[in-house]
Design a protein that fits this description.
With 278 residues, this protein is α+β, with helices and mostly antiparallel strands. The protein contains eleven helices and six strands. It holds the Pfam family UIM.
Length: 278
Protein backbone atom coordinates (compact mmCIF):
# COMPACT_ATOMS: atom_id res chain seq x y z
CA UNK A 1 0.00 0.00 0.00
CA UNK A 2 2.96 2.37 0.51
CA UNK A 3 3.90 1.80 -3.13
CA UNK A 4 0.32 2.47 -4.27
CA UNK A 5 0.17 5.52 -2.00
CA UNK A 6 3.27 7.07 -3.59
CA UNK A 7 2.33 6.20 -7.15
CA UNK A 8 -1.22 7.50 -6.66
CA UNK A 9 0.22 10.72 -5.26
CA UNK A 10 2.60 11.17 -8.19
CA UNK A 11 0.11 9.70 -10.72
CA UNK A 12 2.58 7.32 -12.32
CA UNK A 13 4.47 4.05 -11.83
CA UNK A 14 7.43 5.78 -10.21
CA UNK A 15 8.21 3.37 -7.37
CA UNK A 16 8.42 -0.41 -7.17
CA UNK A 17 8.71 -2.59 -4.04
CA UNK A 18 12.35 -3.25 -4.93
CA UNK A 19 13.16 0.46 -4.99
CA UNK A 20 11.39 1.08 -1.69
CA UNK A 21 13.18 -1.92 -0.16
CA UNK A 22 16.49 -0.42 -1.27
CA UNK A 23 15.66 2.83 0.55
CA UNK A 24 14.64 0.84 3.65
CA UNK A 25 17.92 -1.14 3.63
CA UNK A 26 19.87 2.10 3.28
CA UNK A 27 18.08 3.55 6.31
CA UNK A 28 18.71 0.35 8.26
CA UNK A 29 22.42 0.58 7.48
CA UNK A 30 22.56 4.23 8.56
CA UNK A 31 20.88 3.32 11.85
CA UNK A 32 23.31 0.42 12.33
CA UNK A 33 26.30 2.71 11.82
CA UNK A 34 24.97 5.20 14.37
CA UNK A 35 24.44 2.42 16.89
CA UNK A 36 27.98 1.13 16.21
CA UNK A 37 29.40 4.47 17.30
CA UNK A 38 28.69 3.40 20.88
CA UNK A 39 30.83 0.28 20.39
CA UNK A 40 30.10 -2.93 18.47
CA UNK A 41 30.47 -4.94 21.65
CA UNK A 42 27.91 -2.92 23.59
CA UNK A 43 24.67 -4.48 24.76
CA UNK A 44 22.63 -1.85 22.89
CA UNK A 45 24.36 -2.67 19.61
CA UNK A 46 23.85 -6.45 20.00
CA UNK A 47 20.19 -5.88 20.87
CA UNK A 48 19.79 -3.66 17.81
CA UNK A 49 21.19 -6.35 15.51
CA UNK A 50 18.72 -8.89 16.85
CA UNK A 51 15.70 -6.70 16.20
CA UNK A 52 13.83 -6.77 12.87
CA UNK A 53 13.98 -3.75 10.57
CA UNK A 54 11.83 -0.83 11.65
CA UNK A 55 11.66 0.44 8.08
CA UNK A 56 10.07 -2.56 6.33
CA UNK A 57 8.78 -6.06 6.97
CA UNK A 58 7.86 -9.22 5.07
CA UNK A 59 4.28 -8.06 4.53
CA UNK A 60 5.46 -5.17 2.37
CA UNK A 61 5.02 -2.46 4.99
CA UNK A 62 7.32 0.57 4.71
CA UNK A 63 7.88 3.22 7.37
CA UNK A 64 7.23 6.96 7.16
CA UNK A 65 11.00 7.42 6.89
CA UNK A 66 11.04 5.34 3.69
CA UNK A 67 8.15 7.30 2.19
CA UNK A 68 9.72 10.61 3.22
CA UNK A 69 13.07 9.70 1.64
CA UNK A 70 11.35 8.49 -1.53
CA UNK A 71 9.55 11.83 -1.89
CA UNK A 72 12.75 13.81 -1.37
CA UNK A 73 13.80 12.64 -4.84
CA UNK A 74 10.94 14.80 -6.16
CA UNK A 75 11.69 17.73 -3.86
CA UNK A 76 8.63 16.94 -1.74
CA UNK A 77 8.42 17.23 2.05
CA UNK A 78 5.99 15.76 4.58
CA UNK A 79 4.62 17.82 7.50
CA UNK A 80 2.43 16.33 10.21
CA UNK A 81 -1.03 17.84 9.76
CA UNK A 82 -1.88 18.18 13.47
CA UNK A 83 1.56 19.32 14.59
CA UNK A 84 1.59 22.61 16.56
CA UNK A 85 3.92 24.16 13.97
CA UNK A 86 1.52 23.46 11.11
CA UNK A 87 -1.64 24.30 13.04
CA UNK A 88 -0.22 27.73 13.90
CA UNK A 89 -0.17 28.50 10.17
CA UNK A 90 -3.99 28.15 10.13
CA UNK A 91 -3.95 26.87 6.55
CA UNK A 92 -7.31 25.78 5.12
CA UNK A 93 -6.91 22.16 3.88
CA UNK A 94 -8.60 23.19 0.62
CA UNK A 95 -5.58 25.36 -0.15
CA UNK A 96 -3.21 22.39 0.02
CA UNK A 97 -2.59 19.98 -2.86
CA UNK A 98 -2.32 16.57 -1.24
CA UNK A 99 -2.21 14.54 1.95
CA UNK A 100 -0.78 11.14 2.88
CA UNK A 101 -2.72 9.19 5.51
CA UNK A 102 -1.59 6.27 7.66
CA UNK A 103 -3.41 3.92 10.03
CA UNK A 104 -1.43 1.04 11.54
CA UNK A 105 0.28 -0.42 8.44
CA UNK A 106 -1.94 1.07 5.74
CA UNK A 107 -1.08 4.13 3.62
CA UNK A 108 -3.20 6.06 1.15
CA UNK A 109 -3.28 9.41 -0.66
CA UNK A 110 -5.84 12.21 -0.72
CA UNK A 111 -5.03 14.52 -3.62
CA UNK A 112 -6.44 17.47 -5.51
CA UNK A 113 -6.68 16.86 -9.25
CA UNK A 114 -7.77 19.86 -11.24
CA UNK A 115 -10.21 21.66 -8.98
CA UNK A 116 -11.53 18.64 -7.10
CA UNK A 117 -10.35 16.40 -4.25
CA UNK A 118 -10.14 12.61 -4.47
CA UNK A 119 -9.58 9.84 -1.95
CA UNK A 120 -7.10 7.53 -3.75
CA UNK A 121 -7.23 4.68 -1.24
CA UNK A 122 -6.01 1.45 -2.85
CA UNK A 123 -8.51 -0.51 -0.70
CA UNK A 124 -11.36 1.11 -2.63
CA UNK A 125 -12.65 -0.11 -5.98
CA UNK A 126 -11.92 3.32 -7.46
CA UNK A 127 -11.23 6.99 -6.64
CA UNK A 128 -13.71 8.62 -4.26
CA UNK A 129 -14.72 12.21 -4.95
CA UNK A 130 -14.56 14.48 -1.89
CA UNK A 131 -16.34 17.82 -2.08
CA UNK A 132 -14.63 21.01 -0.86
CA UNK A 133 -17.42 21.31 1.71
CA UNK A 134 -16.60 17.94 3.21
CA UNK A 135 -12.78 17.84 2.96
CA UNK A 136 -11.94 19.29 6.39
CA UNK A 137 -14.50 17.08 8.10
CA UNK A 138 -13.26 14.03 6.18
CA UNK A 139 -9.73 14.65 7.49
CA UNK A 140 -11.08 15.27 11.00
CA UNK A 141 -12.94 11.96 10.85
CA UNK A 142 -9.74 10.15 9.85
CA UNK A 143 -7.91 11.70 12.79
CA UNK A 144 -10.68 10.63 15.14
CA UNK A 145 -10.31 7.06 13.84
CA UNK A 146 -6.60 7.10 14.66
CA UNK A 147 -5.04 8.06 11.34
CA UNK A 148 -1.85 10.09 11.10
CA UNK A 149 -2.13 12.68 8.32
CA UNK A 150 0.81 14.32 6.57
CA UNK A 151 0.65 17.39 4.33
CA UNK A 152 2.72 17.01 1.15
CA UNK A 153 4.65 20.22 0.46
CA UNK A 154 6.30 20.98 -2.87
CA UNK A 155 5.44 20.87 -6.56
CA UNK A 156 3.97 17.57 -7.72
CA UNK A 157 4.94 16.36 -11.22
CA UNK A 158 2.55 17.20 -14.05
CA UNK A 159 0.03 14.48 -14.84
CA UNK A 160 -2.70 13.92 -17.42
CA UNK A 161 -5.49 13.64 -14.83
CA UNK A 162 -4.66 17.04 -13.35
CA UNK A 163 -4.55 18.69 -16.78
CA UNK A 164 -7.88 17.14 -17.82
CA UNK A 165 -9.67 18.00 -14.58
CA UNK A 166 -8.56 21.62 -14.87
CA UNK A 167 -10.99 21.83 -17.80
CA UNK A 168 -13.88 19.66 -16.59
CA UNK A 169 -15.49 18.69 -13.31
CA UNK A 170 -16.30 15.14 -12.29
CA UNK A 171 -19.70 14.05 -11.01
CA UNK A 172 -19.73 10.76 -9.09
CA UNK A 173 -23.03 8.90 -9.21
CA UNK A 174 -21.93 6.05 -6.92
CA UNK A 175 -19.24 6.12 -4.27
CA UNK A 176 -16.71 3.29 -4.53
CA UNK A 177 -16.84 0.54 -1.93
CA UNK A 178 -14.06 -1.26 -0.10
CA UNK A 179 -12.78 -4.10 -2.26
CA UNK A 180 -13.98 -6.69 0.25
CA UNK A 181 -17.44 -5.13 0.35
CA UNK A 182 -17.66 -5.19 -3.44
CA UNK A 183 -16.83 -8.90 -3.51
CA UNK A 184 -19.37 -9.59 -0.76
CA UNK A 185 -22.05 -7.70 -2.67
CA UNK A 186 -21.32 -9.61 -5.86
CA UNK A 187 -21.60 -12.85 -3.92
CA UNK A 188 -24.91 -11.74 -2.40
CA UNK A 189 -26.25 -10.80 -5.82
CA UNK A 190 -25.17 -14.19 -7.17
CA UNK A 191 -27.06 -15.96 -4.35
CA UNK A 192 -30.18 -13.86 -4.94
CA UNK A 193 -30.04 -14.59 -8.65
CA UNK A 194 -29.69 -18.31 -7.97
CA UNK A 195 -32.66 -18.19 -5.57
CA UNK A 196 -34.77 -16.42 -8.16
CA UNK A 197 -33.84 -18.96 -10.82
CA UNK A 198 -34.73 -21.84 -8.48
CA UNK A 199 -38.14 -20.28 -7.78
CA UNK A 200 -38.80 -19.83 -11.48
CA UNK A 201 -37.71 -23.40 -12.22
CA UNK A 202 -39.90 -24.78 -9.43
CA UNK A 203 -42.90 -23.04 -10.94
CA UNK A 204 -41.88 -24.14 -14.41
CA UNK A 205 -42.38 -20.59 -15.56
CA UNK A 206 -46.17 -21.07 -15.59
CA UNK A 207 -47.49 -21.58 -12.05
CA UNK A 208 -46.13 -18.27 -10.77
CA UNK A 209 -48.43 -15.30 -10.72
CA UNK A 210 -47.18 -12.28 -12.64
CA UNK A 211 -47.32 -10.07 -9.54
CA UNK A 212 -45.22 -12.58 -7.53
CA UNK A 213 -42.54 -12.52 -10.18
CA UNK A 214 -42.61 -8.73 -10.15
CA UNK A 215 -42.18 -8.77 -6.36
CA UNK A 216 -39.10 -10.97 -6.66
CA UNK A 217 -37.65 -8.74 -9.35
CA UNK A 218 -38.21 -5.68 -7.18
CA UNK A 219 -36.55 -7.39 -4.19
CA UNK A 220 -33.55 -8.26 -6.34
CA UNK A 221 -33.31 -4.70 -7.64
CA UNK A 222 -33.56 -3.24 -4.13
CA UNK A 223 -30.73 -5.46 -2.91
CA UNK A 224 -28.46 -3.89 -5.51
CA UNK A 225 -29.21 -0.29 -4.65
CA UNK A 226 -26.62 1.84 -2.93
CA UNK A 227 -28.40 3.37 0.07
CA UNK A 228 -25.79 6.12 0.54
CA UNK A 229 -26.56 9.67 -0.60
CA UNK A 230 -24.06 10.13 -3.41
CA UNK A 231 -24.17 13.78 -4.49
CA UNK A 232 -22.51 16.91 -3.20
CA UNK A 233 -25.75 18.05 -1.64
CA UNK A 234 -25.58 14.99 0.61
CA UNK A 235 -22.03 15.95 1.58
CA UNK A 236 -23.30 19.40 2.50
CA UNK A 237 -26.03 17.96 4.71
CA UNK A 238 -23.52 15.70 6.45
CA UNK A 239 -21.14 18.63 6.91
CA UNK A 240 -23.91 20.71 8.49
CA UNK A 241 -24.85 17.85 10.82
CA UNK A 242 -21.23 17.39 11.87
CA UNK A 243 -20.64 21.09 12.45
CA UNK A 244 -23.72 21.23 14.70
CA UNK A 245 -22.30 18.44 16.86
CA UNK A 246 -19.00 20.19 17.52
CA UNK A 247 -15.80 21.40 15.93
CA UNK A 248 -13.83 19.22 13.56
CA UNK A 249 -11.32 18.56 16.32
CA UNK A 250 -13.89 17.01 18.67
CA UNK A 251 -16.45 15.12 16.61
CA UNK A 252 -18.71 12.84 18.66
CA UNK A 253 -18.80 9.08 18.21
CA UNK A 254 -22.19 9.17 16.47
CA UNK A 255 -20.99 11.38 13.63
CA UNK A 256 -22.43 10.32 10.21
CA UNK A 257 -19.76 8.62 8.15
CA UNK A 258 -18.73 8.76 4.52
CA UNK A 259 -19.32 5.02 4.27
CA UNK A 260 -22.14 3.74 2.09
CA UNK A 261 -23.94 2.38 5.18
CA UNK A 262 -25.21 4.10 8.32
CA UNK A 263 -22.28 3.03 10.48
CA UNK A 264 -21.02 4.85 13.52
CA UNK A 265 -17.38 5.93 13.61
CA UNK A 266 -16.59 3.14 16.08
CA UNK A 267 -18.23 0.48 13.89
CA UNK A 268 -16.40 1.73 10.82
CA UNK A 269 -13.10 1.75 12.70
CA UNK A 270 -13.61 -1.85 13.84
CA UNK A 271 -14.46 -2.95 10.31
CA UNK A 272 -11.35 -1.31 8.95
CA UNK A 273 -9.21 -2.84 11.69
CA UNK A 274 -10.62 -6.28 10.91
CA UNK A 275 -9.92 -5.73 7.21
CA UNK A 276 -6.30 -4.72 7.85
CA UNK A 277 -5.70 -7.67 10.20
CA UNK A 278 -6.70 -10.11 7.44
Amino acid sequence: CAQHCLNNLLQGEYFSPVELSSIAHQLDEEERMRMAEGGVTSEDYRTFLQQPSGNMDDSGFFSIQVISNALKVWGLELILFNSPEYQRLRVDPINERSFICNYKEHWFTVRKLGKQWFNLNSLLTGPELISDTYLALFLAQLQQEGYSIFVVKGDLPDCEADQLLQMIRVQQMHRPKLIGEELAQLKEQSVLKADLERVLDANDGSGMLEEDEEDLQRALALSRQDIAMEDEEADLRRAIQLSMQGSSRNISQDTPQTSSTNLTSEELRKRREAYFEK
